[in-house]
Amino acid sequence: MTLLLLARHGNTFGPGDRIVWVGAREDLPLVKSGEAQAASLGEKLRERSLTPQKIVSGPLKRTRRAAEIVKAITASDSEIEIESRLTEIDYGQWGGKTDSEIDAAFGPDAIPAWRDHHKRPSDAGWSPDDATLKANALSVLTAMAKADSPTLVITSNGILRYFHAAIGFDGDPKVKTGHVCAARCDGDTWHPLFWNCHPDDLPEVT
User: Fold this and answer.
1) Residue 32 region, left (φ>0) first, then alpha (ψ -120 to 50), else beta?
2) What are the structural domains, with CATH classification, of the chain?
3) Strand stretches in the chain, DSSP E
4) Per residue in 144-200, pLDDT tens?
5) Distance linking the first and last C-alpha atoms of the chain
6) What torsion, rounded to 10 degrees, do the Cα atoms 3, 32, 61, 176 define?
7) Which of 91, 106, 190, 197 has the most CB atoms around its CB within 10 Å?
8) Residue-level pLDDT at 1
9) SS3 (DSSP) at 55
10) Are 41 and 74 within 8 A, CB to CB?
11) Percent of the chain whose pLDDT exceeds 70
12) Cα–Cα nearest to 198, from 171, 169, 176
């Protein structure tokens, strides 16, 4: 059986920074605290003897750097594979804008519709479309089903929502920065284990 770990990159904003929506076109690096979050994940995986046998990352700076940190700390022999299907959503007109700026332009219900109900705006130029994002998640999962275990995938919050649905998790699909999720594949069937877990609270998995 394959153990799949799904992680979100760490922080891209530091104290006093203007907090904006960061999508595919906002290719921000990790800040100091974000690198520390990736290190925390790597250290916890090392403590649990969960050295990734396969590491797959989205192409953006924030995900690639997180993968590099985890690889170094766990002393994984895996080369980091860059997977374009793990690129964060392009948030179109929302990208680079604050919540208040989006509220002013699209109304106060637009952000809760996405965050709470997974309903994306139809008039903000997001891409790819919903069907493509669903297909991407399913195709990545198919590729990971027989991968060496454990496999670590590092991507972004928007993309992780589609893995949440594809695997069959219940509850809130949001993943906080630096947090990790896990599922296990038995044959062609994925079994949810945990979602949005801080590395310090990582459950026992093998």
Assistant:
1) alpha
2) 2-90+128-201 (3.40.50.1240), 92-126 (no CATH)
3) 2-8, 54-57, 80-82, 151-155, 180-186, 189-197
4) 998 889 999 999 999 999 999 999 999 999 999 999 999 999 988 999 999 999 999
5) 10
6) 50
7) 91
8) 81
9) strand
10) no
11) 100
12) 176
DSSP-based helix, strand, coil % in the chain, nearest 5: 40, 20, 40
Which amino acid belongs to residue 203?
P
Interatomic CA distance for residues 58 and 37, integer angstroms: 17
CA pair distance 180, 125, nearest whole angstrom: 29
Residue-wise pLDDT tens digits, 64-99? 999 999 999 999 999 999 999 999 999 999 999 999
Instruction: Tell me phi and psi for residue 19, to 5 degrees.
Output: -85, 120
Helices and strands, counts by H and E, the chain: 6, 6
